[in-house]
């Protein structure tokens, strides 16, 4: 079985090499042609092609046969992450990577920001401020939970907009993936939820509009302070899902 697996993996690499040496947009040879080209059985070729198809590198189109496509980098990773099979150390690594990226993307956010982005973020923080006022005023627990859910959505909108501003699709896909994996934006039901937040979204927005990338980066580090402090608990929650 080990030899069979190794043969499939080698065949997969051989097919990728064939793709790189030939027109990547062209139709691939049929299975039987690969059998002759690579000197392996049709079963091995079929399995190798199946793996490449699962990775999103090739796909079969009607009347066109098997063709090469541009794969989504996180397409295969999404299935792995959502499988629930990752161990605690791997989950911690992924979560730490998320924090590194969000702190480190300041220069790209500043390079790509424009008036449209500023207006969008201004609307988001204004909505958040109003919801916070409502949460403080309400004495009804059900209403408080409803407002907290809305605040979570606004929180997601704010951070997602920053990721979108980088203009990096892979970064946006990764953020979306980890956001759902770790439930990073849990509903806030305590009325003193800002008591542990050193820099709020309003502060980040003001720095983005009038400050520097370096100041924004430092502020983001402080904004995520509770994420650092609660990292182990968030990882534990992901493990027990």
TrEMBL record:
Give the organism the record lists.
Answer: Alistipes onderdonkii
- Give the matching Gene3D superfamilies: GntR ligand-binding domain-like, Winged helix-like DNA-binding domain superfamily/Winged helix DNA-binding domain
Annotated GO molecular function terms are:
DNA binding; DNA-binding transcription factor activity
Q: Where is each HTH gntR-type domain found?
A: 1-71
Q: Which UniProt keywords apply?
A: DNA-binding, Transcription, Transcription regulation
Checking PANTHER family in the record gives: TRANSCRIPTIONAL REGULATOR, GNTR FAMILY, UXU OPERON TRANSCRIPTIONAL REGULATOR
Any Pfam family matching the protein: GntR
Protein's recorded name: HTH gntR-type domain-containing protein
* InterPro entries on file: GntR_C (IPR011711), TF_FadR/GntR_C (IPR008920), Tscrpt_reg_HTH_GntR (IPR000524), WH-like_DNA-bd_sf (IPR036388), WH_DNA-bd_sf (IPR036390)
Which SMART domains does UniProt cross-reference here? Answer: FCD, HTH_GNTR
């Amino acid at each position: 079985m080990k030899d069979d697996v190794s043969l499939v993996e080698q065949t997969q690499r051989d097919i990728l090499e064939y793709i790189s040496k030939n027109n990547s947009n062209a139709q691939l040879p049929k299975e039987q042609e690969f059998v002759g080209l690579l000197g392996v059985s049709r079963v091995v070729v079929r399995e190798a092609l199946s793996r490449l198809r699962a990775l999103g590198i090739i796909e079969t189109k009607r009347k066109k046969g098997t063709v090469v496509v541009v794969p989504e980098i996180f397409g295969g990773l999404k299935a792995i992450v959502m499988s629930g099979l990752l161990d605690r150390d791997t989950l911690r690594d992924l979560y730490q990577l998320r924090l590194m990226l969000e702190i480190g993307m300041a220069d790209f956010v500043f390079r790509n920001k424009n008036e449209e982005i500023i207006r969008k973020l201004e609307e988001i923080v204004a909505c958040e401020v109003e919801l916070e006022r409502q949460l403080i005023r309400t004495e009804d627990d059900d209403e408080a939970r409803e407002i907290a859910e809305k605040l979570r959505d606004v929180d997601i909108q704010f951070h997602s907009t920053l990721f979108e501003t980088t203009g990096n699709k892979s970064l946006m896909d990764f953020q979306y993936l980890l956001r759902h994996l770790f439930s990073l934006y849990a509903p806030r039901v305590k009325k003193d939820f800002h008591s542990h937040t050193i820099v709020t979204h309003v502060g980040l927005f003001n720095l983005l509009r009038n400050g520097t990338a370096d100041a924004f980066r430092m502020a983001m580090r402080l904004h995520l302070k509770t994420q650092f402090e609660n990292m182990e608990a968030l990882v534990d929650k992901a493990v027990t899902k």
